Inverse folding.
């Protein structure tokens, strides 16, 4: 039986005011700590965003917060640290993310003091079960405010609860809120400031087992006159459709096609706009600069390098908007259930599906999201294959090459174009590589053992503009920061390499420059793949991050073209790469491990260099062999 | 967990045998302690009622309504959960 009360404090609660003055002085970093605790999908992260104004990923499936996040709120001109913790069903840690919560609440995390107050966030629509968590939390003796979240949904679905009666039963203040709409949040500030009346503390029983805990929770909610809400009618109706044996998978396919098509069709005018803006601002800046060298550095180096990557911002935002809606609405939890059977065949499970899908945005949060997978073996297998999923950094590379080499032809009328189809094919290619790798792992070094799969299906909810908007804002910042740091640095460095050594006081032809020498050094290795030295330079720089190749090519062609011709990047590419080479390049990018940040996260999550080293060798080896085959097979087919 | 014979006398059957729309009362979880505790936290507590809901396309996993939530479980797991069917 699980031990729920493993705490030295015992069940008695102090009656002291919340956040009384500290006895010992603490430094500037020693702000008072407020912890947000609650079961998975109870709305902690939405509340966290409301309280701190920080962007923090929220979705409508259990297990979004897998590391803890700290934000700050100001209360009576004092700064408080608000900590958003991964969801837990109990204080008995069984998975990696539950361990994080357990350690922070017990003050066992380095650099994080034990919380001064707890906001216990429970789903009001499922109160009887969620109240189970109240017993071990209240027993810790930390001042606690119990928040019954989604109170608006409870009311709408005909449920009710007497918060005052519940507060008296538990000996802790209870309030109804809706984190999504912001309803009732004043009470939190009141509680922290000590202006909310606290009920008299009560003796809580020590509960040794889950059934005993559940029984206690049931008696508490009964005493508070809790009326559970009616079944979510719309959720049932939608599930009848989305989980339908035929309609379900079909709808999934249609949604995917829609995403890929809109990446091209909807994003195009926006991208053209951004591109025109960058080109005209570049010429404007050129006119302002006094000397030729500065003009070359700023306009041909930085502007074409950074600009050619920034152009892809609209596409990335569209992808994230779609993923955000899928997540927040609750559809992803269904997708996990639908995919479990297929995933089990290759030794994975439905819970692996959500990290893998979010790896379509970026492998880094995906690898961190694997912490919700209880089985260590499944978790590591998921980490190993996640970078095969087509992340958004590949998108600029793919769309550039596709747009340069494939005509804009309609396949199924207006609904599906050739370019969108090619893009879908590349996404499928990455997915197949991931599945095949999982299968190989399962039938060789990492055999799957028997484990439990459980997935809670939340009701469908409307995604809020606030949540999606914050996420897009956050993504834009990350993307532009990378363009402003990594890609800027590479562009400047590359410009220098491409302009040296000087010949008669002038920049040499690019083939004879240092960058050209570098490219020609690697050329013999990549020639069999159909790439020339220019692509070679791009491959070297893209080891830092995939999209850097686009900026690199932008800089190379920018310098080569000089100021007399602003030949488009696509056009320039077509001069140096033929169709077989282009296909090989796409295949190479689909498989190769070109992301230092991902390798660093894999090292952290797996606790050593072993896994990232294998991963790098395997993925890059596979990329090389596959690109070689793609180049030669296409050449053979084309005669 | 000791079975309490206060049901309607129906023979125990596995949760996996429940068809969509049918209900039963949970009797015991014949699973390792770690799995059983997790399932109980999710609402699969002996004595509670459970209703079978939709099934994923392909027949696995299955979705159950238990204690106010909808939880998906694999058939294999369900075959180790014993229930008494409602009359």
């Amino acid at each position: 039986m699980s031990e729920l009360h493993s705490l030295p404090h015992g069940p008695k609660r102090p009656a002291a005011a919340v956040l009384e003055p500290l006895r010992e002085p603490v430094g500037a970093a020693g702000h008072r700590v407020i912890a947000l605790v609650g079961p998975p999908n109870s709305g902690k992260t939405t509340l966290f965003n409301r309280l701190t104004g920080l962007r923090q990923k929220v979705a409508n499936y259990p297990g979004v917060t897998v590391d803890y996040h700290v934000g700050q709120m100001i209360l009576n001109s004092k700064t408080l640290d608000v900590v958003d913790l991964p969801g837990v069903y109990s204080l008995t840690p069984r998975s990696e993310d539950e361990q994080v919560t357990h350690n922070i609440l017990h003050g066992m995390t380095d650099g994080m003091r034990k919380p001064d107050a707890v906001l216990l966030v429970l789903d009001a629509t499922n109160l009887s079960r969620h109240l189970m968590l109240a017993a071990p939390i209240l027993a810790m003796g930390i001042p606690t405010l119990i928040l019954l979240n989604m109170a608006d949904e409870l009311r709408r679905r005909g449920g009710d609860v007497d918060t005052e009666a519940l507060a008296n039963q538990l000996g802790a203040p209870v309030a109804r809120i809706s984190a999504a709409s912001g309803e009732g949040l004043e009470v939190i500030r009141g509680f922290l400031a000590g202006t909310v009346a606290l009920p008299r503390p009560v003796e809580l029983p020590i509960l040794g087992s889950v059934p005993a805990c559940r029984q206690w929770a049931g008696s508490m909610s009964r005493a508070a006159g809790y009326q559970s809400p009616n079944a979510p009618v719309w959720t049932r109706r939608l599930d009848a459709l989305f989980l339908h044996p035929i309609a379900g998978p079909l709808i999934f396919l249609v949604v995917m096609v829609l995403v890929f098509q809109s990446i091209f069709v909807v994003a195009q005018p926006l991208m053209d706009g951004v591109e025109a803006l960058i080109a005209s601002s570049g010429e404007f800046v050129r006119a302002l600069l006094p000397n030729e060298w500065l003009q070359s550095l700023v306009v041909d180096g930085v502007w074409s390098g950074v600009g050619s990557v920034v152009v892809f911002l609209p596409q990335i935002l569209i992808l994230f908007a779609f993923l955000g809606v899928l997540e927040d609405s609750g559809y992803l939890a269904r997708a996990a259930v639908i995919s479990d059977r297929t995933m089990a065949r290759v030794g994975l499970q439905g819970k692996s599906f959500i990290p893998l899908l979010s790896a379509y945005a970026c492998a880094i949060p995906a690898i961190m999201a694997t912490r919700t997978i209880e089985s260590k073996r499944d978790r590591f297998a998921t980490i190993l294959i996640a970078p095969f999923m087509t992340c958004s950094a590949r998108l600029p590379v793919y769309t550039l090459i596709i747009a340069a080499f494939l005509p804009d032809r309609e396949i199924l009328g207006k609904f599906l174009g050739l370019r969108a189809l090619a893009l879908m094919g590349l996404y499928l290619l990455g997915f197949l590589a991931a599945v095949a790798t999982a299968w190989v792992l399962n039938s060789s070094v990492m055999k799957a053992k028997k484990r439990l799969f459980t997935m809670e299906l939340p009701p469908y909810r409307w995604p809020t503009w606030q949540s999606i908007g914050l996420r897009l804002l956050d993504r834009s910042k990350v993307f532009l920061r990378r363009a402003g740091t990594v890609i800027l640095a590479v562009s400047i460095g590359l410009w220098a390499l491409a302009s040296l050594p000087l010949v008669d006081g002038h920049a040499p032809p690019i083939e004879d420059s240092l960058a050209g020498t570098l490219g020609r050094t690697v050329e013999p290795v990549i020639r069999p793949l159909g790439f020339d030295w220019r692509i070679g330079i791009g491959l070297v720089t893209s080891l830092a991050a995939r999209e850097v190749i686009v900026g690199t090519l932008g800089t190379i062609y920018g310098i080569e073209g000089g100021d007399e011709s602003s030949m488009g990047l696509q056009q320039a590419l077509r001069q140096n790469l033929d169709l077989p080479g282009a296909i090989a390049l796409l295949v190479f990018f689909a498989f190769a491990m070109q992301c230092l940040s991902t390798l660093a996260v894999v090292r952290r999550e797996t606790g050593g260099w072993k896994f990232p080293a294998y991963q790098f060798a395997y993925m890059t080896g596979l990329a090389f062999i596959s690109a070689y085959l793609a180049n030669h097979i296409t050449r053979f087919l084309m005669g | 967990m000791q079975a309490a014979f206060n049901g309607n006398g129906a023979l125990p059957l596995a949760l996996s045998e429940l068809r969509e729309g049918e209900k039963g009362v949970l009797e015991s979880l014949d699973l390792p302690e770690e799995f059983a505790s997790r399932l109980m936290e999710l609402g699969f507590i002996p004595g509670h009622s459970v209703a079978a809901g939709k099934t994923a396309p392909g027949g696995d996993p299955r979705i159950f309504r238990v204690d106010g939530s909808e939880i998906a479980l694999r058939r294999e797991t369900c075959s180790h959960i014993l229930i008494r069917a409602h009359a």
In short: Chain B is about 15% helix and 35% strand. Residues 1-7 of chain B have pLDDT under 50 and may be disordered.
